[in-house]
Amino acid sequence: MGEPDMHRREPAGGDGQNGSGPQRGAGRTGDSYSASVDGDASGPVVVGNHNVVIDGDGSHVTLIAPQQRPAPVRREQAVLLPRRQREPVGRERDLDALEAAVEEGGGLVQVWGPPGVGKSALLRYAAHCLEPGRDGVIFLSAIDHEVDDLAQKIFEACYEAPDYAPSRTEVQRLLAQLELMVYVDDVDLDLRQLRALTDAAPAATFVLASRERTLLGESTSVELRGLGPEASLSLLTRELRRPLPPGERAAADELCTLALGLPLLLLRAAGLARVDGASSVTLPRPAEISGLLPLLFQRLGAAQLRALNLFATLQGAELSAGHVGTLCDVSDPDALCTELAGLGLVVATERGYRGAADAVPEVRRRVSEPFPADRLCDHFAQWATAPGVTPADVADHARALEIAAQLAERHGQADRAVRLARAVSPLLARSLRVGVWGRLLDQGQRAADQAGDNAARAYFTHERAVRFLLLGQKVLAATLLAQAVVLWREIGSSHGAQAALDAQQYAPQVVPGPAGPGAGTGAGGADAGSGAGFGSGTAGPTPDVGAPPVPDAGASQVAAHGMPAGPTGSASPATSAVPPAPDAPVSVLHSTSQSVGQSSGAASGGSGAAAGGGAAAGGAAAASGGMGLLLAGAAALVVIGLGVQQIQEWNRDSAGSGTSRSGTGFGDAARAGGSGEPTWPDEPTPSDEPTEPDGLAGKWRNGAGETFDVTESGDGSYALGLTSTCGDDSMKFTGSNGRYSARTKLHTQSCTFFGTKEMTVTLASDGQSADVVTTDSAETDGTWECTTCGTETDTWTRVD
Known about the structure:
The chain is an alpha+beta fold.
């Protein structure tokens, strides 16, 4: 890039609130456009090497050769721009500094500053007016998005490839040479995640906006501070929408000074002067600058309060104005949301609005009950299945859907959460946003367990298995697929069971234990005893218990997970006598011998059905055994310590009903004795093996979608940093055995101590989630009352 003034592009005209991006000049790209990322609402999608037919009763997966993947077509220019807006007041120097940083930053620039300082406004304006990269310009919001989903958005902006999500390696290959300008707003990613995102497009220049400077020494940074006195006064006057009376100039100057030049506070001060309705301008007094929110709320109507309660309940999730109108019974939701945005109480986003985070406590002071969970779930479930709603529409509202399901579950309405999750999951899968799809599947699984809905358990277990398979996490996929077969058969769904069995050929197979007397080929024929086998072919010879495993190509998956393998590559039938390797992630080895729904074959064949050394291409063959396919045939489930609660519960139930233990293991999909269907090696993917939780330390996400770090202090305690205008309010957690507690002080906005905050964190057995109880208590002399004190519960989820 050359000199700043030579490359700045002025945005197209308009009021800055709506409209498309600027038109490109001849010789570049022609008319500007936004990349279509809707996807097809029906038919298959391709994720990596897998073709997936999304089905509400269990999706079907097939493997495709690399040459059969879709061929992405490069767009001439990638143009994915945010909504237009007016030029930010007083940011000329900051814009120059940003442009210079882009030139000097080596591909990575960080814009940082406190909430309300105007980072989003600057980034949106820069995306329109600064010089794009040679191959285009892209604007993204990272709020509530996984890294892989953001990388998929970049890919879709650069390539025409409907219904195709390449693997991470393929995305990096396709984007490797593209010189893009990528603006990412609301970045709340740790260093590892940031590197994964920027590595997806290594030749691109990334401009990241965040609250704090996190990339020390790795980027050029631009710190955004409050506006100067003249710029503050100009912004205040512009937002008043009428001239400032001469008699108010001194008060306006003092107001701007006490607001520290923060545009959000100035916007609210002007909004408060407007809502008074007087013909003359009456600014709030300077002393009221720290209490603008209560003053604004005093002047709001019932419809506005209902809308703000909705936004507060959804905890910052994005919501279109149409949903606000339907849920809050508002005839003109666009006007209402625009008015609330003008008051600084909601934030306009690319596709709708989200509530201002600091307005939530004031909402709760005035409306104690959150928006009804049943209305949210019923509305979203009906909307998601309405004609014309696209996968992209549902993906845009994924965070709101997730919170609605969580609320329903917490309020004893798990059946509604199940209905919502089942309605939106197929569309989220088709949107190719595997991150948010996974979060909704996890939420649906928890709700199904709480509701005791076996059909939903089968569905969510199956879909989670499919997702893990697509991500290359084959060990976990194999475990879930094995359980899905059981669950589908329990409810009598041959369709779902067959889909799970078909998918098993692409994952390491759960191998049955030793053959019992009278067991035959394991092909599911008359000799099969219980009539069940996991594959065709005959079992390999059984080595001595003490003999070392014999490695071969087919045994790689087994050996990688610390389980001895037999000469044919299948797990040794005698593995129950051989302890796993010390680092093996296997926590429980189960095989069951009790038949559920036994057939006549089970009586003649006893409890041991022989099985082939691998899985057939069509999955396991079953005779008349029904549920005996897994249970009567000594089928094994290997329970991985990855926080899959429903698998552990199923194993415990089986163990309590008279199961016996024998060997289990994983094999490959097409090794000796299998169908011989060709397979192709997967591209490099993250390891399947779980990371053992290190106590409370790590990165967590709370129920509001906010992420934060808990660090180990070295003395056995853990620290959660909570900085505020009153100083460091860090919480020091102490405890052991999965239960930790902490205590800190509470201050008013004027930094007056008035109470304490106590938190208790109880880790789940897998270490991947935690129940959190927070109690705020006040030390009052009786002359005042703490309206926000009390006890709240939350759930933290560990973030990889």
